[in-house]
Design goal:
InterPro entries: AB_hydrolase_fold, Esterase-like, Mycobacterial_A85_antigen, TAT_signal. Belongs to the mycobacterial A85 antigen family. It catalyses: 2 alpha,alpha'-trehalose 6-mycolate = alpha,alpha'-trehalose 6,6'-bismycolate + alpha,alpha-trehalose; an acyl-CoA + a 1,2-diacyl-sn-glycerol = a triacyl-sn-glycerol + CoA. Its EC number is 2.3.1.122, 2.3.1.20. The protein has 327 residues and is of the alpha/beta class. The chain has a single domain, classed as Alpha/Beta hydrolase fold, catalytic domain (Rossmann fold, 3-Layer(aba) Sandwich), CATH 3.40.50.1820. Helix content is 34%, strand content 16%. The chain contains 10 helices and 10 strands. Strands 1-2-3-4-6-5-7-8-9-10 form a 10-stranded mixed sheet, with helices on both faces. Helix 9 links the parallel strand 9 and strand 10. The termini are far apart. The N terminus is likely disordered.
C-alpha cells in the first residue's frame, strides 16, 4: 500500500479502523484514576492503577511481563451488580486499530447496555497489536494474545461474578478488534459461545495477502519498532493459517456468529475505501464457507464505510444476552 497517513478527522471518523492503525492516535487514561492498592493481583498480573469510584465502570491498569508497558482495561458492570448477588455472562469487547481500551466508552457502551444483565470487559490491544503474539518485536514484549487469554480472562473470572464457562462468554470487536474476536474464537474453541465482527477482516490471504501485509506494516510502524506480527519479508505460514478465520471454518460450528460490514465506502477517503472494501470481500468469503459447511450465522451489509454502527452494536448485544447463560 502507498504511504499515506490519515488526518485526525479521518481517524476519529473511522473510530479505530484498519487504516487508523498506521497513525499514532491519541491514547487516553481516566483522569480521575486513583493510586492502586495491592489487591486483585494474580495470573501474572499486578494492578498498578485503578478507579472503582464509578458505580458501573471500573478502570484497571496492569503490569505484566507479556506487555512492555502497563495496559489498561475497562470493566463495565450491570446496573444491579452491587446488590443483586447474581452471576453474569461476560462480553469481551475489542477495540480497533489506532484506538485503545476507552474506545467503546467514548462511543456509548454505557447507554447500549443500560438495564442489561451483562458484564463488558474492554482491554487494551495495542494501537496495531492485531490481538497477536508477534513473530518479532524490537521494543520489548507485545504478546497481546497471551495477555488477553491466559492472564486477563482468568483474572476477570476470579474478581467478578461471571460465568466461568463456555456458555457464559462472548467476544466481539470492531475492525482490528473484529478480526481479533474471530481469531480468538477459532483458536480457543471452548472459550466463547458467541462471536461478533463489526467491520472486521475475516480473510488473511485473499488479494495476495493484503490484510496480512497490512498487519505486518502497521504493527512494524506503530507497535513493534520494525518487528511484525507474521514475519517479514517471509511470513510464518503456520501462524497465518492458525489465525485465518476462513481456514478455521469448523471451529465456528455450534456458536452464535454475528457479522456486519459496509457496502458503500467514501470514495474520497482512501483509508475508508480500502478498509471496508477488503472487509466486505473477506466477510463474504467467510460467509460463503460457513454456508457451504452448514454453519448458521447472522450477517448484515449496510450503507456506509468503516465505522462503528450503533444500531448493529445494540442488536448484537441483545443477541449476545439472548444466547448466553442468563444472569
Amino acid at each position: 500500500m502507498a504511504a499515506h497517513l490519515p488526518t485526525r478527522r479521518n481517524i476519529l471518523k473511522s473510530a479505530g479502523g484498519l487504516g487508523a492503525a498506521m497513525a499514532l492516535g491519541a491514547g487516553g487514561v481516566l483522569a480521575t484514576a486513583s493510586p492502586a492498592a495491592a489487591v486483585g493481583d494474580g495470573f501474572g498480573l499486578r494492578v498498578v492503577d485503578r478507579n472503582e469510584n464509578d458505580p458501573r465502570l471500573r478502570y484497571y491498569r496492569f503490569r505484566t511481563e507479556a506487555i512492555g508497558w502497563d495496559p489498561g482495561v475497562n470493566v463495565l458492570l450491570p446496573d444491579d451488580y452491587h446488590y443483586s448477588g447474581r452471576t453474569y455472562p461476560v462480553l469481551y469487547l475489542l477495540h480497533g486499530g489506532g484506538s485503545d481500551f476507552i474506545q467503546f466508552d467514548r462511543l456509548g457502551i454505557r447507554n447500549w447496555t443500560a438495564g442489561k444483565r451483562l458484564i463488558v470487559v474492554m482491554p487494551d490491544g495495542g494501537k496495531a497489536g492485531w490481538y497477536s503474539n508477534p513473530v518479532s518485536s524490537f521494543v520489548g514484549p507485545r504478546s497481546w494474545e497471551y495477555f488477553h487469554i491466559n492472564q486477563l480472562l482468568p483474572w476477570v473470572e476470579a474478581n467478578f461474578r461471571t460465568y466461568a464457562e463456555y456458555n457464559g462468554r462472548a467476544v466481539s470487536g470492531f475492525s482490528m478488534g473484529g478480526f481479533g474476536a474471530l481469531k480468538y474464537t477459532a483458536k480457543y474453541y471452548g472459550h466463547f459461545a458467541s462471536v461478533s465482527s463489526h467491520s472486521g477482516p475475516a480473510s488473511l490471504r485473499r488479494d495476495a495477502g493484503l490484510v496480512t501485509h497490512w498487519a505486518n506494516a502497521s504493527s512494524a510502524a506503530v507497535e513493534l519498532g520494525g518487528g511484525s506480527v507474521y514475519g517479514m519479508p517471509l511470513w510464518n505460514e503456520a501462524r497465518v493459517s492458525a489465525d485465518n478465520p476462513v481456514e478455521r471454518i469448523e471451529s465456528y460450528r455450534h456458536k452464535r456468529i454475528f457479522l456486519a460490514a459496509g457496502v458503500s465506502p467514501d470514495p474520497i477517503n482512501w483509508f475508508d475505501t480500502v478498509n471496508e472494501t477488503q472487509v466486505l470481500a473477506g466477510q463474504r468469503e467467510f460467509r460463503h464457507l460457513l454456508n457451504r459447511a452448514g454453519i448458521p450465522h447472522e450477517a448484515h451489509e449496510l450503507p456506509g464505510g468503516h465505522f462503528v454502527r450503533e444500531e448493529m452494536m445494540r442488536r448484537d448485544i441483545d443477541g449476545i444476552i439472548g444466547h448466553l447463560r442468563k444472569a
